[in-house]
Design goal:
Elements: H1 2-19, E1 22-28, E2 39-43, E3 48-52, E4 56-60, E5 71-74, E6 77-79, E7 81-89, E8 94-101, E9 123-127, H2 129-135, H3 141-144, E10 151-155, E11 164-168, E12 176-180, E13 183-184, E14 205-212, E15 226-232, E16 239-247, E17 251-259, E18 267-278, E19 287-299, E20 304-312
Parallel strand pairs: 1-8, 12-15
Antiparallel strand pairs: 1-4, 2-3, 2-5, 5-6, 7-8, 9-14, 10-11, 12-13, 14-15, 16-17, 17-18, 18-19, 19-20
Length: 313
């Protein structure tokens, strides 16, 4: 009888502990919003919905709870987050979760004045970062675009390194408008673009859009044939890259790149240094190119400021 009562007592204590567990949820990264921003957390599996200004929440744990199923809003706007810390305080029956809000990324707004959407009546080709990286072995950017509809490229050296040109629907470089983050880079006098001054620019490109025909450009006569809209990016996560490639005609490329990721929920810094050499397919058409790229950005909730500087020789 004593053993039976003791067993029932132990089972009761265990059951009580199971049903009295609590979840302590802390939302981090709210510094990117104003001080009076209202933070709301919804856990559908627990029938829990609560809002406050501190970003700290406590509720009872139930079976089937998954922290990934939580939704977080700030001032009514849905937010993305990642779980940066999890711990169990056994003496207090607490499950502590810390969620870090992922800062806003506003890159898609950079060239809104010169880019068009998929539903607009223009002949457009969008090229992603992954498609560019698959071909980026040191050749100039026009050569990486040669498989787009209506595009023909030329190379003085015969292997796509050095002096290269691009034609779209038969229009030469002086009628092909090129922008980087919405800023025209065509020469003011000849209206051409000298890609040899921007070697390995492809390593810093996020996306490219080619508009065949006059399209939506606002940049004058240089846009009669086509528009090539180049968008660079700023990574929100820290990274470091060392890339090397080697090919025919003693062609080789070395690229070193690094990024700080998001600092203090506002700043980013990206750096790149590249070296390209090729003997060329054509006799006496060797290239020995060096370039650098520096980009920094200050990001707020509703606006951002980006400054970049790049050059090549």
């Amino acid at each position: 009888m004593l053993k039976r009562n003791l067993l029932l007592f132990i089972i009761g204590i265990y059951a009580t502990s199971c049903f009295s567990q609590q979840i302590h949820l802390q939302v981090l990264g709210k510094e990117q919003f104003h001080d009076s921003a209202l933070i709301c957390v919804k856990a559908s599996a627990l029938d829990f919905y609560h809002c406050n200004l501190s970003g700290e929440f406590i509720f009872d744990k139930k079976r089937g709870f998954e922290p990934q199923a939580i939704s977080v809003t700030v001032d009514g706007a849905q937010q993305k987050f990642e779980i940066v810390n999890y711990g169990i305080q056994s003496n207090e029956n607490k499950h502590v979760y810390k969620l870090m809000l992922i800062p806003y990324a506003m890159e898609s707004a950079i060239v809104a004045a010169t880019r068009v959407g998929s539903k607009e009546p223009f002949a457009v080709t969008d090229i992603s970062k992954e498609e560019i990286e698959a071909q980026n072995t040191g050749r100039d950017l026009p050569v990486l675009l040669q498989f787009a509809p209506g595009v023909i490229t030329t190379s003085d050296a015969g292997n796509g390194v050095g002096y290269t040109g691009i034609r779209v629907r038969g229009s030469d470089a002086s009628r092909t408008n090129v922008t980087i983050n919405g800023v025209p880079v065509n020469d003011a006098e000849s209206q051409s673009t000298f890609w040899v001054n921007m070697p390995d620019l492809a390593s810093s490109v996020q996306t490219i859009q080619i508009q065949r025909g006059a399209g939506s450009s606002t940049n004058g006569s240089g846009s009669f044939g086509a528009n090539v809209n180049i968008q660079t990016g700023n990574a929100l996560n820290a990274y470091g890259i060392l890339s090397q490639s080697y090919g025919s005609f003693n062609t080789h490329k070395t690229t070193v790149a690094a990024g700080s990721g998001m600092l203090n929920n506002h700043f980013t810094l990206d750096l790149r240094l590249s070296k390209i050499h090729s003997n060329g397919f054509v006799d006496r058409a060797a290239s020995d190119l060096t370039s650098y790229f520096i980009s920094t950005a200050f990001i707020e909730k509703n606006w951002f400021l980006k400054v970049l500087h790049f050059s090549g020789t």
